[in-house]
Specification:
Length: 310
Amino acid sequence: MKARHLIPLTVLLIGSMSAAHADFSTGFETTNGSYTAGSTIIGVDDNGAPGANAWTALLGGGTLSSAMGITTTSPQSGTQAFQINDTTNAQAYAGYVNLTSTVVNFTQPYKVKFGMNILSLSSPTSNNQIQFYLGASLTDPNGTAGGRYWTELLYNNGKIELYKNAAGGTSSTPVVSTSLSLYAPTATLTTSGIFSNVVTNTNGYVTFDITIDPVSKTYTGFQITSTTGVVTDLTSTVNGVTLPWVPNSTSSGLLVNADPAYNLMFVTGTDDIATVNFDNVSISNVPEPAAWALVAISALATFGYRCRRR
Ligand SMILES: [Ca+2]
Ligand SMILES: [Ca+2]
Ligand SMILES: [Ca+2]
């Protein structure tokens, strides 16, 4: 091999290395940590979570943590999934794990992905029945009175709602609000009291794929995928839209403009009765455009160099 052929290979490797980071990924299987079918998730240390950081009950704690457990019913992958089985309209449930200092490089763009399957949802119920967050603060993971988040995705009365920062920077508001029934075609939409569009039966997983640029504090992608093959790319809707970062809110004990923490949290509402599975949760860095541009430029330069040598 002539020396000049090594140049593009070297540049390609450097480009690839700068774009490659480790992922946080769990399917709630026994291989992912001490997840045990039929047992609570609370106290379980995921292999991918930093050190001994364990799943923590934020709400519905103590003896009620059995409602947040590992199920073998309808996993998206493998044989197990995380299930919140909320049977009371007087209690919220929230389980979170703190991923601060995880292997993911949170200073570079990253993708948050998870599957959700609402197995049942009954009345009485109000708004925001199922909730997902990444963020808040270490001292206030609940984000009391409007926490600060990297992302916030809610199931609200039949709708999937991805949240953004609201004008003024003190609260958040949906940037996407779309019907879950588009992705869960077997769901039954009913009217229950004053609440409409409530999914009441088993409907299969819906996978969310959210891309975040932590530097510009904006979304750069959002995709929803059903088990039946429906894929909706809402990137054009969310691209460049500010995350639910609420920079002026100090309600979580955060200073103005300080970054949220990295609490990965799943929640069911206080006055909601719901059984919901989560599976295939991952956070992974996305290749940086600059790195790929470098590869492309070096390839072009090498091509030009070779042409001239002929
Ligand atoms: Ca699984
Ligand atoms: Ca760990
Ligand atoms: Ca409840």
